[in-house]
Specification:
Layout lengths: L8 H4 L10 H8 L7 H13 L2 H22 L5 E5 L9 H8 L4 E6 L2 H5 L1 H4 L7 E6 L5 H8 L10 E5 L8 H13 L6 E7 L5 H11 L11 H6 L5 E2 L5 E2 L17 E7 L2
Parallel strand pairs: 1-2, 1-4, 2-3, 4-5
Antiparallel strand pairs: 5-8, 6-8, 7-8
Helix pairs in contact: 2-3, 3-10, 4-5
Length: 271
């Protein structure tokens, strides 16, 4: 364990509510993790009863993250990562992928969920050469995120900003774009942005299941059109193949032909 995490009082003392399903715990359940409660399993099973493909989306999203990080380390030479909305630790977390390829990589995870905070120690095991830290902050407060991340990262050097399945929790598209713009504005030329989120206009059954989930009492997650997801990259240089279903973003050589899923993502460089 290297650099200490930041664990502010408010989140550290928040009670974990096990009576209401929570998106991070449901996602963990779909990924095969154990950090969830019966209420999350019930909500997850209700969702998959309507749309079994959500498990494929969850796992394809994780595979997309692994491939984009591999590109960032091996081809773009990135050694710093700011992962906002990291969720619960599962397999192939950002620091695991990055430090396997470049042990000196430095990673800051950002979340504001008390259960994630309770598991932060699992995220903090870094290579001896690098660093991994946790920031308790909300995605809607980019200035705080940047201020605390700067304690671990040198934000004058190229940094990869990762926003994986988090912008859907920001209700307004304009607000979500403003958050991305503010975060990227603080990063230098040569920095990169990774975004992936559930997409509208691809699978009506998925949209039906998501609408039911949003009505369940859990924190809503807003699907967006491919055009809206693409707009997060305005002013940046998209890396081929652009914004595509996550299964189709540079699939591993020799892998089966990728199916189209209602989860789009992309990677772009700041000029």
């Amino acid at each position: 364990m290297t650099d200490p995490a930041t664990t502010p009082e408010p989140a550290a003392h928040q009670k974990i509510d096990t009576s209401v399903p929570h998106s991070a715990r449901i996602w963990n359940y779909w990924l095969g993790g154990k950090d969830n409660y019966p209420v999350d399993e019930q909500a997850g099973d209700a969702y998959t009863a309507v749309f079994p493909g959500i498990v494929t989306i969850a796992r394809s999203s994780r595979a997309f993250l692994r491939r984009t990080i591999t590109y960032l380390v091996d081809e773009a030479g990135i050694r710093q990562f700011l992962d906002v909305g990291t969720g619960l630790p599962t397999a192939e977390n950002t620091h695991e992928v990055a430090q396997r390829l470049a042990p000196e990589a430095r990673i800051v995870y950002v979340d504001n969920d008390p259960m994630v905070l309770a598991h932060a120690r699992a995220l903090l095991y870094s290579s001896a050469e690098g660093a991994t830290a946790y920031v308790d902050a909300d995605v809607t407060d980019p200035d705080h995120i940047l201020a605390v991340a700067a304690e671990t990262l040198d934000l004058s050097r190229p940094t990869a900003l990762i926003l994986s399945n988090i912008l859907g929790h920001v209700a307004g598209h304009d607000q979500a774009r403003s958050i991305v713009t503010r975060l990227m504005a603080a990063l230098p030329s040569g920095s990169h942005l990774v975004v992936n989120d559930g997409s509208l206009g691809v699978d009506p059954v998925f949209e039906q299941a998501q609408a039911a989930y949003n009505d369940s009492g859990a924190v809503p997650y807003n699907l967006r059109t491919v055009e809206e997801i693409t707009a997060f990259f305005d002013g940046l240089e998209l890396i081929e193949p652009g914004v595509v279903p996550v299964t189709r973003w540079r699939p591993d050589p020799g892998s089966p032909a990728p199916e189209t899923v209602a989860e789009h993502g992309g990677l772009a460089r700041k000029p």
